[in-house]
Each structure stands twice: as C-alpha cells, then as structure tokens.
Amino acid sequence: MTGAPPIVEMTGISISFPGVKALDAVDFRLFPGEVHTLMGENGAGKSTLIKALTGVYKIDEGRILVAGEERHFGGTADAQAAGIATVYQEVNLCANLSIGENVMLGHEVRGPFGINWKATHRAAAEVLATLGLEQLDLRRPLDTLSLAIQQLVAISRAMVTRPKVLILDEPTSSLDANEVANLFTVIRRLRDQGVAILFVTHFLDQVYAISDRITVLRNGGFVGEYPTRELDRTTLISKMIGKDFATLRSLGSERQSHHYEPRGEPLLRTEDLGRKGSSEPTDLELHKGEVLGLAGLLGSGRTELARLLYGADKPDSGTVWLRGKKTDIHSPTAALAHRIAFSSENRRDEGVIRDLTVRENLVLAVQAKRGWFRPLSRKEQDALVRKYLTELNVRPADPERPIKLLSGGNQQKVLLGRWLATEPDLLILDEPTRGIDVGAKAEIQAAVAALAAKGVAVVFISSELEEVVRLSDRIIVMKDHRKLAELENGPHVTAETIVAVIADEGDDEEGDSE
Amino acid sequence: MTDVASRLAAKRGAIVRNQAFWGVVAIVLLLAINVISDPGYLSIGYNSETGHLSGNLIDILRASAPILMIAVGMCLVVATGGIDLSVGSIMVVAGAVSMELLSSMDGTTGDAVLTLAVALGIATALGAVNGVLVSVVGLQPFISTLVMMLAGRGIAKVITGGQNTTADNDSFAWLANGYIVGVPVVFLLAIVIVVLVALLVRRSALGLMLEAIGMDSRASRLAGVKRRNLQLTVYSASGLLAGIAGVFATASVMTVDVSRTGYQLELDAILAVVIGGTSLAGGKFSIGGAVIGGLLIATLDKTVVFLGIPASATPAFKAIVIVVLCLLQSERVRSLFRHRRALRAQSQKEAVAA
C-alpha cells in the first residue's frame, strides 16, 4: 500500500452553502487496495465530501486529483468517467427487474437486433463472479431478494464499469450481523483486486473489522487521518465528538446499578399476543419505571411484537391487560388514548413528516389525541416545543424550520419529543438510535434512563446489544418471531450472554432437524 | 443601503416564488387585454333606481361564485392526497333537486329554505358516499369519484325525468340574482363561505391534520391522526360545497340543464387549485390560492366570450393560458431563467473588468 501513489487526493476542499461552511479545507487521500473509513457525527461533512468526490456538488476551493491528474467534476457523469462509482445508503435499483437486468441497466450489450440478452447476462455473470457471487440466479426478480442481497446487487451494478474507486455510503445500516459478514467478504475481495474503497458507517465494530485507515471530520473541518490499528475506540470517539465520552460510560454503570425490582401489578400484561405470519403468541409483563429490552437479530420479530403492542398492526390472537383491565388496542389512536406511544424504526417513512416544520411534527400526536376541533393554542404549542427542544437539546432549536433540514439525530430527538408530549405511561422505542451520531445517541439514552426514573415503562429495541444491555432492567431475547428467553439484567449479563442465548438455540434446532 | 436592497430583493423573491402571484398577474393581463380591445371594459355602472352596480367586473365576480365553491372543496380534498372528480355532477344533482321541488311548490320563502336544505343535504350525502368509498372501502379517490361523476349526472336525469326543469321562486332566485349594497348576493355568499372554511381549517388543527395525511399517511397514522374520519369529513365538505355551487348555478336562470349544468367544472376546480399553488401530490395547500385560481378561471371564461373567440376554439385558448401559467410556476423553468440572468450578469461584469 505504501509506495503506491494515492488514486484519489483531495486537498484543501471547501464548500459553502448559503449561511454555512459545509467543508472547510478538508484533505482526503485514498490508496488503491485499501478500505478507508470516513468518520464523523451527523453534520460533520461526510456526505458533503462524498458528494464533492462524486461530482454532485461543485467545490469552492481546493483540488481533486484522480490518478495524479487534476479533475473538475461538473456532474456525476464526469466522476463516473474518472472511475469513481458510488453505492448509496438507499438501494437504487428497479424492484421489478431481474438481478441480471439490474446489474447491466444502462450497460446492456447491444447487437444488430437491439439488446443481446444472452451476452448481457453473460457479462452480468462475469461481474457477479468477480465479487464471488456466482451462486445468485440472474433471472430472479430483485424484489424476491432480501435487502442484503439487493445491496450486493447494487455493488455489482457499480462494478460493471470496472471503477478504480468504490464509495459505499452506509451500506450496512439495515443489515444483520451475518449479512454484514457476507458484505465484508465481498468488500475484501474487491480490495484485494486493487479497488480503492471508501466506506461510511456509524458502526464502530465494523470500522475496526474492515478498514485500513480512518479519516475523521468534525463540523466540516478535517481532524486527522489515522491507520486503524493505531487508533483505539475511545480516542476515535473523542476525536469525533471533540470531547471525552464519559457521559456514555457513566450512564451505563448508573443504569445497571439502579436495577429496578418490579413489584405490584404490572402496567401491561399480554397472554398469547400474536399475529399470524409476523409474531408467535407471546406472554410478557411490564412494570412502571422499568426498561424492557427486546434483543434479537433483525427480522427476529422485535419490531412486529412492538407494533402489536401499539395497535399499529392488529393482533389476531391473545389478550392484553392494561393497568389490570382487559383492553383492546386495535389502532394507534386507541393506544395513544391509553397512554401508549410508539416510535417506529422507520424514521423516514413512519416517523417524521418531512415537509412539516419542527413545531408541527412535535405537536402532531398531542393534537391528534385531542382531535382537530380542539386545537392547541399557539401559546400551548410554544410551551411544548420550547420544553422538548431544550430538554432533548435539539439543534438548531428553530421550531419553524422544516424538519427535513435537520440531521438524523436531531430528527429523532424531535420525534422523541413528539411522543413524550403525549405524556405516555408506556413508551415503545424501536431502534431510536439507529443511524445517528454518538453524541445524539448518548443524549437519547440518557433521556430513556431519565424517563424510567420518572416511572414511565419503556420498551427498548435496538440492534446494538451493548446498548440494550446498558439500558434495560429486563431483556427479552427474540428469534424467528418468538420469545426465546427472558433475562434479568445485572452485572453478569453482557452482549455475549445474549449472543450465546441466540446461538445456543440455533444449535439445538439444527440438532433437532438432523 | 445594500442591506435594505437585499431585504427588498428577498421579499420580492418570496412574492415571485409564491405560485398564486402568477395567478394574479394572469388576471391583470387578461383584464388588460380586454381594456385594449374596449377601453371602457373596467367601468362600473351604478343604477341609481335599483342601487345595483353593473359592469364586466361585476359579471366576473358573479360568475366566479360557483367555481370558488368547488375550488375550495377540491383544495381540501387535494390536500389529503385525493381528488374529487364528482363536483360537477353533484352540482347538477343539487340543481335538479332544487328545481323539481320548487316547481311543485308555491314559491314562498319557506319553500326556498326547505328546498335549499334538501338539496344541500343530498349533495353532502353524495360527498359522504365518496368519502366512505375512499376511506372505509379503500378505493382510489380517482376511481371512487369517477364513478360518482358518472352516477351523479344519471341521478339528475332520473330526478327530472330527463327534462330541463324550470321553476319560479323569487327568494331562491334572489340567492343568485339579488344585490346587497349594490354587490351581487351570490358573490358575497361565496366570499363569506370561503372565509368561514378558511377560518375553520386554519384556526382549528384541521389544516395541519389534512396536510399531515397528504404528506405521509403512514407516519400520521402512527401519530394517531384519524385518517378515515378526516377523509370522510373532507369529501362530505366537498359535496356540500358542490351542492352550494349547483344552487348558485341553477338559481341564476331558475332552470336546471341536466346535460350542461356543472359540466366539466371539476376540471376548472382542479385547475384553480393547481394555479393556486397546491400540489396535486397532496400536502401543503392554499385556500387563498384556490380563490385566486377560481377568479382567474372566471375572468378567462368571460374574456373568451368578450373577445368573441369562437366557441369551438375556446378550449384551446383556455389551454394556452393555463399552460403558460404552469410553465411560469414550474421550478425548472424558473431556474432556467435565473441561470440565464446569472450568465448575463457575469458576462457584464467581465466586460466591465476588461
């Protein structure tokens, strides 16, 4: 790696938008045959830097050298011509086309009678083979595949033009551990073929698993470039947030020592609560002031169970007792009336309403609960908004700004404010910290701990097992749409304990079936 | 100085970006064209005997009343991400019911009130049927209201037995032809209703809820917004407003023309809403914009007649005006103009520097 000249060299890159300096004299180098991670909190300038490199944004100052030649990108086509390919976070493929068609879209092999499908599929097969994906059936329609495989198809598609640089923008944010491992195998393969890979992620484990080098940005500025093995996690995080992360640590120990002993009547009790095809009949109990963690891999049925509790999906079996009374929760409206609130894992489609302002998003649930004919006065709205913007430290604290202009972490805080404003007794949080930066994550975790201390019952769902262990009083481990085990949290429980529970079960099953 | 100038420029930018602004510009242009062909076009006469104002402008206001009604209803429906194609047909049903009832009555004010109540009740019920089809059954708004559009005109023909029924009732006719302090009652009523609807929508949380379901119905469902009730309310309201428009349209001549009353007016209503800057994709809506759009359509209709454009060419003329307007409103076209302006400014600067 050393010795070879960098394939991409960006020096002194600055980009300004009206009123903000998004990037300020940032340097970035990318060598052939390396995986380079770009780290920083939301709003640090990672996406802006990537967009500068892919020709989406024009740079105000600085130089971009690709393979030693200075380039001026007027658009994405220029960057592609220079050998830079990008795979974005949301998979941009055609769900109704086949794998082969998707891979070759726009690069179909043409013969005298239009597209030569045979040759096209052959070319697609070659590309898949270079990624070690020969086993995929080219003719299968894309929408029958899991998101993880779709992601691999998207990478194959980017590799059709044999780029020298591949940019992966948060490719793992919706994959489970197994799928991430598969993806990494493919990434390593490409790296060994000499492709320079720029990788963006929020998951620290993945950074250490795959990357050779890390560049850290903060507030649009360049913090430094480090070989991964010379930078430990604590240092990395403190470089990203610009201060030490003791808050995060102290919170964990505080929660685990506080450990809540449930007594008296449970706030919520379910018996055989389930829905065909999405959630096996489940029993659970939840007490006031308790944080119940739902742990399990993606697709284990965590989300489905949470949606049943909120009435977002209708259960078709089982009974729910709320405060000792048999209760029918058949819709979100009914749930809110019973003081249950639910924050969906899908912040984009089921959380924020992008075109509404921060204020409107925040008061929406309270207003819906009251009915439209009893509007909150402007004064009441302002009071609510001021309270939660301050309490949750939303930045910028401008209630009239459309929420789509806020970073992911701040959107999530506004959403949390929306649910808190309904004064719930039971708050269900599905992946409240996914895809947000370390600082916002710590703030949301602190808010959850504070809520539990105030007597609110919280159901906390997260793919990050450490986070579940840190926050929960009790943990329900789920797999294959059913409850596997229930653990009392304590100093002896760690992420490994949960992994062991899931893995044990898997072995048993295999043993049974053989 | 630059501070004031830039603030002024910003304000001007905001006005120009406001889509309804171009509707106002179009109205002024149309009136200007009329004035060129007849300098006395804008003059308003005053009849000292009856105390009525008269003139082309008054005619436009009078003609705009039914369009304003259906445009406001359409605006609310469009905000939820739906569409109501049945407003023209609900107009003719309301007209047919009124004329049939009045023709069998004595012509007292009490009869007029009773007739009005029955006609508007039926119109609201038809709107509610749309609402049920969309919200409870879950049909697409386009299909549900298309069905109602076809059914409505059929119902009107059944009510009148296929005849163009005529009736006499002075109180009922006064709604469309009367004057209060010189201004047509029908226009005053329309404005009062528009203001009431606007107040209801913006002073309550109804506007926010409608926008929320129009922008993102899944997120609003999880936030507890009752989509069903809101859709039912909005389609019923659109039916009621269409009923009022039907009463206005038939009361002016005291005749219902089952094949022409309200014919294709749903398209005018949709145009008015779009001209007013409300996106057909749903979400943010502007009742004020819809009113401007409605006034523009009324002005356009009168201009076509005034300029003596042959009836067969009328749709083409209307289409041209609307296409130009939509082009002016389009973000893309405007950014093209901005780009050209910027280029010109740059070349001037370079010329100065050289």
From TrEMBL, chain A:
One of its GO terms (molecular function) is ATP binding. Keywords: ATP-binding, Nucleotide-binding, Repeat, Transport. Residues 252-281 are annotated as: Disordered. It comes from the Bacteria. PROSITE patterns: ABC_TRANSPORTER_1, ABC_TRANSPORTER_2. Residues 255-281 have a biased composition (Basic and acidic residues). InterPro entries: AAA+_ATPase, ABC_carbohydrate_import_ATPase, ABC_transporter-like_ATP-bd, ABC_transporter-like_CS, P-loop_NTPase. Residues 8-244, 262-505 form the ABC transporter domain. Gene3D superfamilies: P-loop containing nucleotide triphosphate hydrolases. It holds the Pfam family ABC_tran. CDD domains: ABC_Carb_Monos_I (cd03216), ABC_Carb_Monos_II (cd03215). PANTHER family: CARBOHYDRATE TRANSPORT ATP-BINDING PROTEIN MG119-RELATED, GALACTOFURANOSE TRANSPORTER ATP-BINDING PROTEIN YTFR. This is Sugar ABC transporter ATP-binding protein. It comes from Jiangella aurantiaca.
Automatic annotation (TrEMBL), chain B:
It comes from the Bacteria. The keyword Transmembrane helix applies. GO terms for molecular function: transmembrane transporter activity. It is a multi-pass membrane protein. One of its GO terms (cellular component) is plasma membrane. PANTHER family: ABC TRANSPORTER PERMEASE PROTEIN YPHD-RELATED-RELATED, GALACTOFURANOSE TRANSPORTER PERMEASE PROTEIN YTFT. Keywords: Cell membrane, Membrane, Transmembrane, Transmembrane helix. This is ABC transporter permease. It holds the Pfam family BPD_transp_2. The chain crosses the membrane at residues 20-37, 67-97, 172-201, 234-258, 270-298, 304-328. It is found in: Cell membrane. InterPro entries: ABC_transp_permease.
